[in-house]
Structures are given as structure tokens and as C-alpha cells.
Write the C-alpha cells for this entry.
Amino acid sequence: MKIITLTEEKDHLIQQAGKLLVDAFGEHWSEAWPSLEEGLQEIHGMLGSERICRIMLDDDGNLLGIVGGIPLYDGRVWELHPLAVQPDMQGRGIGKALIEDFEEQVRQRNGLTITLGSDDEDNMTSLSGVDLYDNFWEKVREIRNLKRHPFEFYQKMGYVITGIVPDANGVGKPDIIMSKRITSEGT
């Protein structure tokens, strides 16, 4: 397995990446990329020179996963968007390896922090389907994972919940904001 940068001339991998977004996000995040056309549109947007777009390939050159990044705050902060792993390959360290590679890519660009949003549109956590404006901090402090929401995966990778956007995807459907400092400067 190897991780490389996805570029415009790798059309067969771009096609696989677009399909991966549809397949990986289809079950719980059906509104993310409901069609191949929308998945491909997202992938092409990720290929800009200011962005990061890394993919993991197996030994036969098949796409296993993808991670992307968007610079914010003059490149001091990067948004991790998206992370996707082939559904039948999840739980095998591919996402972990892609995040570690992404963190190194951000360090090389002098980034300080990575942030990400992890939507809860399908009652996957205890933050979904409730009024987050009532006892907000208590609900965040007592968050529970009900249906394999990825926030716990990110916590294992060192990310912490730094915010919640209530109703980001409709009433009772929050976005969980997580961040990680990737530099030791200033600490």
C-alpha cells in the first residue's frame, strides 16, 4: 500500500475517488454526495494547487481511501475534508494512515491546527434529535456514540471536540467540530 497525491492526469483514480465518496457516505450521509456526478465534482474541487488531496492505493493500484484538506486562516489552520475509506476496508488502519499522512502534509506547509466537521444527521450520537440550546455544555460533555459515529475515531487520533453547530443539517441535526494542534510551537 502507498499514499500519493491525486492529480488531474490520473483520471481513472479520480473516477474511483468520486465513486468512493458516494459509496462511503451513502448509508448515513446520503445528502453529502448522492450521485457519482456530485462525487466527481467534489474530487475535482479538491485538486486545486492550494489544497491537499491524498489517496491510498493497494499493491494493484486500486483506491482504498482518500483525504483532503482546505487551507484556512492563511494556512495556519487546515480543514480536513473529506476522509473516506472503502466501506469493506474500514477498520483496517487505512483512515488512520491517511490522517497521519495528512497531518504531515499540513506540518510541511507550516500549519498549526487541523479542524474538521463530523455531521450527525441520523441520530448517531446523543447530540442529535435534542435541543442543544438547553444545557449545551452538559450535553457536549456527556456525548455518547449510539451508532458508530466517527467522532470517537477522531478522538483516538488526538482530536478534541472544539464546538458544535446546532441544527447545521436541519433541526436536531448538528455538526460536531473537532480540532487538533499538530505543532509543538508555543506549548
In short: Helices lie at 11-25, 36-46, 94-108, 136-141, 151-156.
